[in-house]
Predict the 3D structure of the following.
Amino acid sequence: MHRPNPIGSSRALVASTPLLATSEAVRELFAESGIGCTSQRLLVGRLLFARDQHVSADRLLAMVLAAGARVSKATVYNTLNLFAEHGLVRSLKLDGDYTVFDSNTAPHHHLYDEHSGELCDVAVDEVAFSRLPQLPSGTELAGLDVVLRVRRRTPWP
Ligand SMILES: [Zn+2]
């Protein structure tokens, strides 16, 4: 399956690094995206782009603190939103205000278990659409993201 890589070859380099993405790879990613490099952004990037993962801001804050850094919750939130604005991560709104950031920006859908909170990737070719609404004039489809929400079946009484 063809998986377009919107941010170039360094993304693959970053994703293949097991635990922490290298500083060089993350700096290169920032430079390509026009994001200024600060020590906090670099650490968040190294943790986030180490592999394809879905993380909430709270989870990432815990990872940052576990790495021994002193970064505020606001900085982590702002950094994730900055990455999302520049297309380095996808933000997925799940329950209400619960947002998860996906370091895999290649096109794919998601399966979300409302009971366990588990979020899994679903390949693009596993979902098909037979019809889409007409788009407003002067616009084009920029993306189509599906979240399949599942819950436990209610047991028969
Ligand atoms: Zn995903």
